[in-house]
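Aim 2 progress update. The chain analyzed this quarter is reproduced below.
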Amino acid sequence: MKITFIGTGNMGCKTRANSSVLIDDLLIDVGCGTVKQLGRLNIETKRIKYILISHYHSDHFADIGHFFVTRYIRKELENRIK
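Predicted C-alpha cells:
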C-alpha cells in the first residue's frame, strides 16, 4: 500500500492544495489545487481508478471537474472512444 498526501491545506491556504490523499489507485477528496499537485508530483490521472469524496464541502470536491478535463486533454483515458 502506497499513501501519498496530495494536499494538506485548507480553502484559505495560498501555498498548499486542499485536502487530498492518494492510496494506491484511490483518490480521497479532490479539493482545490489537487490536479496541479498531481502534475507537480508526476502522477498521471490514469493511475487513479477510484475517487472517494468524504463529504460535501467544496474544499473536498472543487477540482473534480478539472480532474476529468485534465484527464481528457492529456489523453489519459484508458478506454477512449475511437
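The CA atoms of residues 35 and 44 lie 10 Å apart. DSSP finds two helices and four strands in the chain. These observations will guide the mutagenesis experiments scheduled for the next reporting period.
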